[in-house]
Design goal:
heterodimer, A: alpha/beta, Alpha-Beta Plaits, 3-methyladenine DNA Glycosylase II, Chain A, domain 3, four-stranded parallel beta sheet, globular, B: 140 residues, alpha+beta, Heat Shock Protein 90
Chain lengths: 455, 140
């Protein structure tokens, strides 16, 4: 995984080296070094939590820009259904479809349509007797990466069917080739409009291998602002209409994918911390009698992605209104079996990120040192050293990535000891002489305090 | 033989939502040490069941894990009511959990049997009114 391409990155000039992202990173992938955050490529799962949390907008998601349209003769937009929830006072998805064409796309293939096919295939899949339950959704790449790093026994549970975006890309490309046989493969651009950086990474790392038909990934945010411009210029009703139904659009929020399996033995969770707890319990065989588990790293589901504009719950309310009069699931698979091209052959491999050393003896020695250093640390997880917790700091020390003197609490204690040793009283006397207002406090503190930390 | 690595956890008896935290922490440490997924799973499930048991029956207790060269030893000690009939308690499905505990989905009577199933050795020292200490070993 060394060459894993991430789409969460840092603008060093904006980063103040505060500890907000440090503490919120679910995989402890961030450290503060030399006054700014550093993201460990091995541990990052592209969840985008740090982007959402950063007070200084220093974390950003890398994605392609809309100028990518110029590279191709023919382009197809693949809008994620979460895009539809971004617009206020919009009662017809046709406005978006027409708007995308006004932006320069030649065609639109809604990811929600492919999602309905995936739902139909999932229903077939979970009925099979040879399937390991609960089947875990493959739609959230952050969850899949988390499972591959920490839950080797659950890798088999992941739905082996490609996520909707890959199926949409495949079908969109086939359609473009059929309708325009004069075009060569390179002349067709398949542009996914993504709500989150994890899906950008998913595409850029070729998780679907040779089945990767997506050429570019742009953000819901960029497309939203571009669409606002073109949509304002039109006053007439659009002729286009959405081809997806309630089920496809439901995939944008948590529970949408699960309810589409038409079976009450499901669990749907969102928010990365909740998902981790659920995975821990499934891993301990503590949740039984479930057929399907949908886990979305973002609060609210894909509408909560770091590349969206609207609040996830507001977006969800809008989607409920938009899908209300749509048919349940107009996109039906042509077959009663799952076509081979819709299976993901590229199954995940266990890749533990936290390994101390390949050599067990060395690893054991390091673990012993970590435990003994940890015992001497204050245990307040303040983050001032640049590590998210005292435990992580102890690990960093033993791995040679930090030194013990970076603990500000210990340093403060040593500083006080130093003051005591070097006639603290005389220094304080000098200070109080210069600053009579502090006199009362100063004289009260004149006795040396061995536990200076308490101050 | 190198010194064993020891981990100690206090298991809070009042807090169901944090039950299982020690086993999650141990799982992470074993991953860092590079043990195979099979070993980690055995230790994790056995310890998780034991932790839950201590919370349900004994108002918490102490969990100690020792990683040796050839085995991992898990010692779960509580000062709870003790187990009057160990043989009965070991039967699958046997449970003394109160209804409010069962309503939370615990107390299915699989705790002790699962602990035995996932470990290579298990010893129960118990005395009614004094407490229970369960020692489990997973061979490496």
């Amino acid at each position: 995984m060394a060459d894993y391409k991430h789409s969460v990155s840092l603008d060093v000039s904006k980063c103040k080296g505060c500890t907000t992202c440090l503490r919120r990173c679910p995989t402890e992938a961030i450290r503060i070094r030399d006054g700014h955050a550093v993201i460990s490529s091995d541990k990052c799962i592209d969840c985008g939590e740090c982007i959402k949390m950063c007070s200084y907008k220093a974390k950003k998601a890398n994605h392609d820009s809309l100028s990518c349209l110029e590279k191709y003769k023919y382009t197809v937009a693949l809008p994620a259904p979460s895009l539809y929830g971004q617009f206020d006072h919009m009662d017809n998805i046709g406005y978006i479809i027409r708007g995308l064409k006004d932006l320069g796309f030649d065609a639109v293939f809604e990811v929600a349509c492919a999602a309905e096919l995936v739902s139909a295939y999932t229903r077939l899949y979970i009925k099979r007797s040879d399937v390991k339950k609960p089947v875990i959704s493959s739609a959230c790449p952050t969850i899949s990466r988390m499972i591959s790093m920490n839950y080797p026994f659950l890798i088999e549970n992941i739905l082996p069917i490609l996520p909707p975006v890959d199926i949409a890309a495949y079908l969109a490309r086939e359609q473009a080739k059929t309708e325009h046989p004069e075009l060569s493969e390179d002349e067709i651009g398949i542009v996914f409009i993504s709500p989150c950086p994890a899906k950008v990474s998913y595409v850029k790392n070729d998780f679907a291998k040779e089945r990767n038909y997506i050429t570019d990934v742009v953000s819901v945010r960029d497309v939203y602002f571009a669409l606002l411009d073109v949509m304002k210029k039109r006053e007439d009703e659009p002729l286009e209409a959405t081809e997806s139904g309630m089920i496809g659009i439901g995939w944008a929020s948590t529970g949408g994918e699960s309810t589409a399996i038409f079976n009450e033995r499901y669990l749907a969770a969102d928010g990365i911390e909740n998902c981790i707890r659920v995975l821990d319990q499934i891993d301990n065989e503590d949740i039984t009698s479930l057929d399907f588990v949908e886990l979305n790293a973002c609060n609210g589901g894909c509408v909560g992605g770091a590349m969206t504009v609207a609040n996830p719950y507001i977006a969800q309310a809008r989607l409920q209104a938009l899908k209300r009069y749509l048919p349940v699931s107009p996109n039906r698979p042509a077959s009663e079996w799952i076509p081979d091209e819709f299976f993901n052959e590229n199954s995940l491999e266990y890749s533990p990120a936290a390994l101390l050393s390949e050599d067990r003896k060395v690893a054991r020695q390091m673990m012993s040192e970590i435990e003994s250093i940890k015992a001497s640390l204050p245990g307040i997880d303040c983050g001032s050293c640049g590590a998210p917790t005292c435990m992580a700091f102890a690990e960093d020390i033993v791995r040679g990535q930090a030194t013990a003197d970076e603990c500000t609490v210990i340093m403060k204690m040593l500083f006080h000891q130093y003051l005591d040793e070097h006639k603290k009283k005389s220094i304080l006397d000098k200070l109080t002489a210069k600053n009579p207002g502090k006199d009362a406090a100063g004289s009260g503190d004149a006795e040396p305090k061995p536990e200076g930390v308490a101050e | 033989m190198p010194e064993p690595i020891r981990f100690h956890f206090d298991v809070d008896g009042e807090n169901f939502t944090s039950a299982g935290e020690a086993s999650v922490a141990v799982k992470k440490k074993l991953r860092q040490l590079g043990y195979s997924p099979d070993i980690i799973r055995k230790v994790s499930i056995a310890m998780y069941e034991g932790e839950i048991n201590m919370v349900i029956h004994a108002n918490g207790g102490k969990a100690d894990v020792e990683v040796n060269d050839d085995e991992i030893v898990i010692i779960l000690a509580d000062t709870g009511p003790g187990i009057p009939n160990v043989e009965l308690a070991m039967q699958e499905g046997y449970s003394t959990a109160r209804d409010n505990i069962r309503a939370l989905g615990f107390g299915a009577g699989m705790g002790l049997p699962n602990m035995k199933k996932y470990t290579d050795e298990m010893k129960i020292d118990t005395e009614v009114g004094v407490g229970t200490t369960i020692t489990m070993k997973v061979y490496l």
